[in-house]
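Human: You know discrete backbone vocabularies at least as well as I do. Show me how you would write down a chain together with its backbone fold. No explanation is needed for now; the record alone will do.

Assistant:
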Amino acid sequence: MITIKSKREIEIMKKSGRLVAETHALLKSLIEPGVPMEILDKEAENFIRKNDGIPLFKGYRGFPSTICASLNDEIVHGIPDKRKLKEGDILSVDIGVKYRGYVGDSAWTYPVGNISKEAQRLLKVCEESLYLGIEAAVPGNRVSSISQAVQKHADKYGYGIVRDYTGHGIGTELHEDPQIPNYVDESWLSHDMRLKKGLCLAIEPMLNIGTHKTKVQRRRGWEVVLTKDNSLSAHFEHSVAILEDGPLILTKID
């Protein structure tokens, strides 16, 4: 069900989103070669709880951790474990928080030390795709306007656009309607909806250097999603509220 948020609800979502952004800032300062991913998870959980938030991912459908930490060819749902980060890695960190009953959700892909030019370009283009998608999130446009903006930019560089996982509505629940694909396809255009003031969305391009196809590995009772050809993958996400004068990014530090 699609829900439209009031001004009061959006104000609360700004606070949950800010907590997500502050958690990202903390983890960014800790990411370097030699750091075990499980340390990042512990630091994130402590910080979120200290600031009166609830780590939303922990226990969600059995997920064992506070953050999703997806390394190199892992696209989403990576589990932070004892593996130590290495020079040249890229690490996608997805953070979900519930605060006063409302959700903030954001993902960012971070370089670990010095990374290759190929990896640098992937991160740059994926982040650019996110902001182009956000720019299209205005009243009167359609969901496909966001999808087309992301796809057009990613296609210029020949990247595989992940199709099996999409952005989504957000509010009191982590995943609400509508789905926000990062590509345009005739199969879903018949359900393409117009964007309205008060709609809140998580826009999240996931781009692969190689194929768009994915594979799944079972780890600790959860499905970690990887690129089919083991190529590098990047993931950038913001939670956004659609206002009359344009999109408002909720998951940022003012």
In short: The first helix runs from residue 7 to 30. The helical segments are 7-30, 37-50, 117-135, 143-156, 186-189. The longest strand covers residues 90-99. The domain at 7-249 is CATH 3.90.230.10 (Creatine Amidinohydrolase).
